[in-house]
Structure formats: C-alpha cells, structure tokens
Amino acid sequence: MLHGLKTSVRPVEEDDIDEIYQWYNDQEVNLWSTGAWPLNTLLSKEQISIKFLDGSSDGYRYSILDENKYLIGTIGFKELNIPSRSATLFVVIGNKSFWGKGYGTDALIIFARYLFTQWNFHRISLDTWDGNLRAIKAYEKVGFKIEGRLREARYVLGSYQDAILMGLLKSEFLAMHGN
C-alpha cells in the first residue's frame, strides 16, 4: 500500500466494486471525471468488476482510501509505453464529499512518486476538458504542465469543449516533491 499525507493507494478489491459501480453510474461524478455522461456510464456491476479486477483490462487500476481507510476514489494508468517509459494517468474521486479538499492531489503525488521511482517512468500524462478547472488546478499542484489543446475534442452537456493535454517529467516531479 502507498501512503500519502491524506490518502493511501492499494489494489482494487472485490468489496470495492459496489461503490465504484455507484460512481460510474453517477452523472455528476462522470461529468467531472470524463465530461462524457452518459457515454462512459451505465455499466453493469459485472462490467465494472471485469474492468477493475480482470488482469486483461485496459490499464492498471487502484483504489484511493482516506485517512480512515474508507474508499473514496480510483487511480491508475493506461497506454503503457515501455520503450519511452511513459503512461497516461487517470484519477477519480468518486465520493463527492471529498471533492475540493486535496485528496485527489495527495493521491496523484503518491502515485506519481510510485511510478517515477518504482516503475522508473520518465514521463506521465493525463487529460481533461477545458471546463474542468478544479482538476486542472489540482494537476498543476502536482507539477503537470499544459502541453496542448485538442480543439472541440470533447462533447460535454450538448456543446463541444477543448481537451487539455498535460504532462509531467520525472525530473520536474522530483525537483518539486523530492524522493
């Protein structure tokens, strides 16, 4: 288990699936995590279980716990590129009572440290949509820099929004947060 100041990160367990299922089918959680309601939602518990527990899923997924070891979100990476030592991150604080309180930032810091020091990644990236200012601010606190914009690449609540691409290099992260 990885430990931060406010959060811990551990592998997803079978007991997490009911809560994760609720988040994946929550319009507000999905709006801010992907901007894609309902396109990324309306999954069955079985589909969620396969996505999070099956070793052949589309990425590596972990649970985020608060100080009391209560499940509050998920984090992980996909698009692993071994030659370039890079991957794309994703993070969701599914429990809305933990929004805007630094839990996502803390989880990203400990997870980025893990990827840079244990997996020896050189670079990690992530993306969001331009209306998700809270996420962009949290990502910048971790050290991510805006690297690009895909014009009108997301369709959010009936209108096209730009996708914001962000990246973080190992050297930048370690200079900002240490080992």
Automatic annotation (TrEMBL):
InterPro entries: Acyl_CoA_acyltransferase (IPR016181), GNAT_dom (IPR000182). Keywords: Ribonucleoprotein, Ribosomal protein, Transferase. Residues 7-171 form the N-acetyltransferase domain. GO terms for molecular function: acyltransferase activity, transferring groups other than amino-acyl groups. GO terms for cellular component: ribosome. It comes from the Bacteria. The keyword Transferase applies. Pfam families: Acetyltransf_3 (PF13302). This is Acetyltransferase, ribosomal protein N-acetylase.
